[in-house]
Amino acid sequence: MALLTSIGVLLSGMPALVGNAAAAPGLTGKRCDQLYLNRKYDAPVAGSGIQGKNQQYSVSPERDWSAYSADNPARAFDGLKAPNAAQKKLAGNTQSAVDKWKAKYEKTGNIKYRVLEIYARYEQNIARNNSRTIRDFSRYVDVRIAGNEFNRTKGHAFGRRMTQQFKLVGPDWLCEVRVKVTDRNGKPVIDPKTKKQAVRIYDFYNKKTKELGEFKSNGKHIPKQLRWDRHILRSPGFRDHSLRMVMGERVAQNTREAYKKLNGQIQRETGRSNGVTIREQRSAAVPRWKPNQYTRHNPHFNPSPSRVGTGGPLTDAAYRQGQSRAEARALQKMYQDANTRGGFGRPGGVDFSTLELNYVGNVTKGKGIDYSFKADYVKNEDAEPGYGGEKALGLSSDAFFTWLALSPDRMWVNLNPDQPDKIMDSAFAKTDAGRVLLEADMEMKRDWARTLNPKQSPGREYMNAAPKVDGVPCFSPIRNWIVPERAKVRQQDGGIYILDAPLKVNTAKMDFDAVPADHCSSKLTDQQKQYSVELMQRMITPEVQKKVNNDPKYKDLRTVYRSRVAAEFVRQQDAKQATDFRKIINSNNLKRWPLRAPHQNWDKRTVWKQARKSFLEGEYTYEWTNGGRIYTYTVGGVDFSKSPKRNVSRVRFNLEKPRLDETTKTSVQSETAYRNTETAYLGGGGSGRTAPGGGGDDPGPGDPTPSDPTPSPSDGTDRPSTPPATQRPSDSPGDQAGDGELGDTGSDTPVGLIAGIAAALAAIGGGLTWWMRRRRMVTED
């Protein structure tokens, strides 16, 4: 595969350096070079051996990070539907039935028989009816069919990769070494499960240096193996041996602590330091398989529901972590029980609440689009596994398509209390992108009022400095709206990296018809009104802006905006040359991306009524020192009509985000950690790959081909017949340039990324904050 790092190790023609050596008594194994490379070397080669011997824990340098492929053809059946009654009868539920269909498939290559083999295995699993039975068919295929296969192939592929990278060849290097377990007194240790002497199988062993070793494609140890290691390394025949753990992913904290403890125990008993070492040799496993008609359709960033979206590590992680805390715990146990070789990585390890779109790739007709997200790892997935990935990914993908499908003249929402008939376009109101914008607008209004609280900073400072009417602070009616701050982006290799997309809160004076004639501001001079607004811009606005950019409650707004940036990039590419997205762009057909549960019954008028009620009745009440009572009413706004960008140069990109391009490319097909951070990059793509034609004869009554989970788009005839009545206010930032205008606002080496998002994307409804003083009643507490 093109993205895979080349092996870079030439193992032929090397001179012999050392001779043969005898293996430890009772130890048997196979030569590593013959097992993994199908070759036999007469002697070791220069540089042979596991690195990091003198450190209990070490990490490979980034230049050595790589990816390797592992076959997983069973993954192509992840969309297979559960068997019906006739298919169950045909398939059978015995081992002989499994063996029969397996033999037929191996002989003919007809996937009809592979389907029947899977059905037979599933029915056999149901018939056992024990604690390991998985009744959900989709989960069974993922865990026991595709998962078990990848467990085997991934472990072997990682061993092969490490054999090549560390040059473990020649007669001294043995692999799949079997060691009978004895205790520190030399007595056999009995395995409680088999009732026989326990046997520990090590992945590699060097007869000369007396190194026992374990390859782990993931970053976790197996507790049973640790128990045997504790006995073996303290037994008479192996007290002079060392253990090398080679891990392909970020090593779990409990694994590091467990082997550090064993290392200390060995040092106390034998005096040897570094008897156990861990080498974190970052290597991403890329599953290799070919989709067919039984492959699950992935709707995320997939322009055509008729094509099989091949998904990727992001959709896998979301699927395997569940959508609630309880489901995450149950699924984590299910996958860990089958995770003997690390095929599933770390179920529950990604914190999807931090998910951010990081990259969209080259847009080429017939090939869909690649994408990559970044997210933090959870601090302790065993205690609190992550969940909610499907929802987070779905919102980003739906918003991406919403911005493509919706024509710019419909990209608006409005929370003006005087305009209940102009809240937002009716089609936009049926999408989660529209919902997020309107709700964020309302939440900003509330945060603005909270920030004005005179009992805390900066509200205290503002109230003291604001103009006074009858001793009570008073200021001009204003509007607040959110706009994109200058973003940092990089267009490279046909794709776009969204490095940072901050938001900015603007504040400006605005007059409203609904303001009562006796409002205190009527007693302020124009100069006092302007001064009050300038005070807000300096004291209040920055605090609200921090919340918009960092508070979790605005996370969906930030997600939606990143999708808007990505969508505009795709629009630009399609304008140059037709892509798979052309039929979607400006179609105003949003049926494929409706409001999702639990918001399927969301109503725009509910939010507008909240804003109207706040405007007329107030939501927050503060007391002033002179005995008056202050009421605050606010409504806010959002305007993404223009999005200034800083086009980051290649030099700066490489300096600030070293290896991000390589990490991102790998993440499309395999989850990978970014450098030595707690950040994961994972994505997907290849939505343009179509499922190949038939797989032979019908496997029996009831074709098991899965139905398409996504409805086909209509022809767009449901679009509104008239344009929206609400236009942007004349002072909106969107009027500073024509819709769709692109400008370079960045470095001296522009990379062609958008400098302005076309048309209004969000709420333009005026924002008002006003104050009323009432007499305090004697009975009030």
UniProtKB/TrEMBL annotation:
Q: Which UniProt keywords apply?
A: Membrane, Signal, Transmembrane, Transmembrane helix
Entry keyword annotation includes Coiled coil: no
Which residue ranges does the record annotate as region Disordered?
A: 291-310, 660-749
Domain of life of the source: Bacteria
**Extent of Pro residues compositional bias:** 701-712
The signal peptide here is 1-23
Locations of Gly residues compositional bias? 682-699
Feature: compositional bias, Polar residues: 292-307, 665-679
Q: Where are the transmembrane segments?
A: 751-771
Q: Does the keyword Transmembrane helix apply?
A: yes
**Name recorded for this polypeptide:** LPXTG cell wall anchor domain-containing protein
**Species assigned in the record:** Streptomyces coryli
